[in-house]
């Protein structure tokens, strides 16, 4: 049976204002055994994009590694998931004082006018390892953004 871990956080409104925390998504994947499921809680407002994950790979010499493959395993019933390519500017990550690497950024957008719960699953694959991330989304007009604090 897959192991489950829980991850939740506060609102994250800036488009690509990544910090060292963003790298933890890629680090968690490296540390996770195949078959693990990470639970993520997200708050969203209807009709607005909310960043739900940042996926990258940073080598020990602070250069970019291969980007992970991202697959939508289970689509949300009341919204849409998109993945965009961006650049992660990270400081103080492991031994890297400052680095800039390509990354994939996943967004969720609830249907306009929808209020309630939604959920979806992403599978992240890198270097032969796979991790499933299960997102539980709370959609509310008073949500003012969401995400997992990254």
Number of helical segments with 4 or more residues:
1
| Proportion of residues in extended strands | over 45%
Structural class: mainly beta
Mind telling me which CATH architecture this is? Sandwich
Mean pLDDT: 79
Q: What is the terminal separation in angstroms? A: 29 Å
The level of helicity is under 10%
Order of helix and strand elements from N to C terminus: EHEEEEEEE
Quick gist of this model?
The protein has 150 residues and is mostly beta strands. The chain contains 1 helix and 8 strands.
What report would you give on this structure?
With 150 residues, the chain is mostly beta strands. The chain has a single domain, classed as Immunoglobulin-like (Sandwich), CATH 2.60.40. Helices cover 8% and strands 51% of the residues. The chain has one helix at 20-31, and strands at 4-7, 37-44, 49-55, 69-74, 79-93, 96-110, 116-126, 129-139. Helix 1 links the parallel strand 1 (4-7) and strand 2 (37-44). The two termini are 29 Å apart. The model is unreliable at 1-34 (pLDDT under 50).
What is the element layout, followed by pairings?
Blueprint: E1 4-7, H1 20-31, E2 37-44, E3 49-55, E4 69-74, E5 79-93, E6 96-110, E7 116-126, E8 129-139
Task: Provide key terms for this protein.
150 residues, mainly beta, Immunoglobulin-like, five-stranded mixed beta sheet, three-stranded antiparallel beta sheet, 1 helix, 8% helix, disordered N terminus
